[in-house]
């Protein structure tokens, strides 16, 4: 008897889920790409940590830094965009933030990985790290291309004022009508 009364009202609401893929900012394909980006960057970072000796340590350390930051920032962005947390952070310009993230890890990491690939001691760990680094770079490029195709280019200027972070859109600055303090004599 009680199950007949309460069954229609206790159905789960799919909107109350903490996991939000697909959403306005992340579709299923780009979610999968981001997961693989995180994994490849993490593997490249771990393999660089395992290297015991290096010929040119500065390129090794910078490669390690880029792999670690790509892993951490992409993981953070993945967690924010695939859960309800992105609605609670107060950032209103997610497309611009995502594109800036992709640009920041695509160009430096690709150029650095080329330098490191040509200037390392040739150990197995370094060779495998370079391969995973290149795979991660390719995935960042694919992610950027897919983002621009689906979301458009977020930094284009179309004459409309852009919204500031958390505030209303503001137009061009207007000169003051009245001075705060009149001139004294």
UniProtKB/TrEMBL annotation:
Transmembrane regions listed in the UniProt entry:
29-47, 59-81, 128-148
The MARVEL domain covers 25-152
- Any single Gene Ontology cellular-component annotation: membrane
Query: Topologically, how does it sit relative to the membrane?
Result: Multi-pass membrane protein
Q: What is its main location?
A: membrane
PROSITE patterns named in the record = MARVEL
Q: Where in the cell is it found?
A: Membrane
Q: Where is region (Disordered) located? A: 156-185
Q: Does the keyword Transmembrane helix apply?
A: yes
- State whether keyword Transmembrane helix applies: yes
Q: What InterPro entries does this protein's entry cite? A: Marvel, MARVEL-CKLF_proteins
Compositionally biased intervals (Basic and acidic residues): 176-185
Keywords annotated in UniProt:
Membrane, Transmembrane, Transmembrane helix
Q: What is this protein called?
A: CKLF-like MARVEL transmembrane domain containing 6
């Amino acid at each position: 008897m009680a199950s007949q009364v309460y069954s229609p009202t206790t159905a789960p609401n799919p909107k109350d889920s903490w996991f939000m893929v697909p959403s306005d900012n992340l579709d299923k394909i780009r979610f999968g790409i981001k997961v693989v980006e995180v994994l490849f960057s993490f593997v490249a970072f771990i393999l660089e940590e395992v290297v015991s000796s290096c010929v040119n340590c500065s390129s090794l350390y910078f490669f390690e830094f880029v792999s670690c930051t790509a892993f951490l920032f992409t993981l953070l962005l993945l967690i924010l965009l695939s859960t309800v947390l992105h609605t609670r952070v107060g950032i209103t310009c997610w497309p611009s933030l995502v594109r800036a993230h992709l640009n920041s890890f695509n160009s430096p990491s690709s150029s650095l990985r080329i330098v490191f690939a040509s200037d390392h001691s040739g150990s197995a760990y370094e060779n495998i790290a370079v391969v995973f680094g290149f795979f991660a770079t390719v995935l960042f490029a694919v992610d950027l291309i897919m983002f621009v195709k689906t979301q458009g280019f977020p930094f284009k200027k179309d004459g409309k004022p852009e919204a500031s972070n958390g505030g209303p859109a503001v137009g061009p600055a207007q000169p003051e009508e009245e001075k705060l303090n009149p001139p004294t004599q």
